[in-house]
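Archive transcription. Copying these from loose printouts into the bound notebook so they stop getting lost. Printout 1 of 2:
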Amino acid sequence: MEYKESKEKIYITTDYEGFIFTDWNRDVSNARVVKMVESIKTAGWLPEPVLVNERFEIIDGQSRVKALEKLNMPIYFCIRKGIGRKECQTLNLFQKNWSTSDYINSYIADGNVNYIWLNSMMKKYKELSAGVVQAVCVNKGKPMNGMASGKVSEKVASGSLKVSEEEKRHIEGVLFFLSRFSETSDYLGGRKDTFYASLTYLYDFDVVDNDRVVRVVNNARYDGLVSSGTVEGWLQQIEELYNKHLAKAQRLDLMHEYKVA
């Protein structure tokens, strides 16, 4: 095998205080640090260099620094100038060890107003799952066929979320509407994404009385609803409940509207 000597130097230190833990990197998991300490004690440690920039901000290796400090062991590290938040996120994207919330917190620390607003919506509507709130925000409150959680997480993690003031008002209207079904959703269990996705279709239909939807769905949660894994399954049930006791001229064909949309 042919190889060349790397120009990148590896340094060693026990000056643990010299390393900087930034706001835009993810929070250090105490559980992960404890697990790493125990692993080193039982299986030994093959030095894996920590990556820092010229300000000694940790780009990769926060848990290693904490674990090695607890063990009073030297830290091997290399310095790469000019890197920072973006490279940190990119590195962890490939390693797949950042959660969606890690990315959100990182963008918030960087002052991204769209992610600050997204986080405020997640707190305000915490009775909905974080995934549902993120899906509604990413899709700008428009009807969606399921929440497509993978695509939503990818969009949030990319840092490309941008929402206008008009879109924010519409999104919050949708979130408030969905929040009125939270107790029903918790009672029924099952897939919440398809339940809430079906309700987003109803929110924007002018002919739909949203207050009636709230009333008939919530009243039926104990004996008239069955959890469904599809948007169509939920809409069929909601349509039947909505049209019950209405004159023929007042009844709605929600499934037709859904298929057209």
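Printout 2 of 2:
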Amino acid sequence: MTDNKINIKISARDTHTRLKLDDIIRSTEGFRIHRSSDDRKPDLLIFELGEDAEKDFQLIESLINSGAAGEVFLTAEKTSQRLLLRAIRTGAKEFFSHPLKEQEVREALEKFKGRREEPSQREPLKSGQIIGVIGSKGGIGTTTVAVNLAVSLAEKRSDQSIALVDANILFGEIPLFLDIQPSYHWGEIAKDVSRLDSTFLMSILTKHSSGIHVLPSPSYLNGSQGATPETIGRLLGLMQRMFDFVVIDGGQPLNEVSLKILEMSDKVLLISLLSLPCLSNMRKILKSFANSGCLPKERINVVINRYLRSSEVSLSDAERSLDKKIFWTIPNDYKRTASAINQGKTLSQIASKAPTTKSLRGLADILTQGEKKKEKKR
């Protein structure tokens, strides 16, 4: 039997407020309380503002922009004209002051139900594209490609939501590349995956000035429970429904977790250089994929980084060695790339018109075109 009830999530710090909202929702026909184990996005989020209202508003904006919550109602102990204007600008549909008035909340719920019944108001679920980026060996620019590809995707369309995940457990460097200091990492999710929902995830993500949402790795072994294939599967499944693109810096290891990431990826970019050690490793990786059967050939794309036309090993040599066509090349510009990393800036910020930057935008173009074809089919 299909459950057609409207799913409401309550995020309230005050116990009395939460219980009051719980009673009102349960006694109103057509609604149910969102369970913590439910990984679907809530149709409605009722959020209580805390002392740091500005921080809460930023979280709510991220939830709305990413589609992690259908609509948002706000409530707060103290109200002011400034707070109400900020709530309107954020996109909240209703604002309840304390103490809560039962009739006011019920009327708002009925109005929301009416809006839901109008076909034009129903938002389609996202079906985001996961792009796994892994390297044939360390130090060849895998993180550089992942970071700047995510930024290039965000530049393509302002209405696209992009997430960047660092899957390097010990050597995650994305925060350094973007000069951010995240308060959380995906190790927080691994501690208690039962808490994982869109609101919890958005509170952990760090938003960069480019618009991308970053989920760093723990970057050290701290004795906490590590990620499992099941944890990663649930995390990426949720992110697919929240974001248009999820770019994953997978580093080099091929363990159970990284294989799960690759299995769920719509496209896998294998980064290599035109050097014999890199191409030798690439052959081994491709052979491993073929033997395991976890990744269809059409999803695997070889990208040559730091490409020089004068290289002793040519593209045709590499294709014969790998028995696979080269999908994309990114020209060598080590000086600008190193400068961007040292400054914690993206290539778009320090060298917007450089060939390397344009090449990464071209790669984003190709991936975006694939997404547009999917949308037309839907």
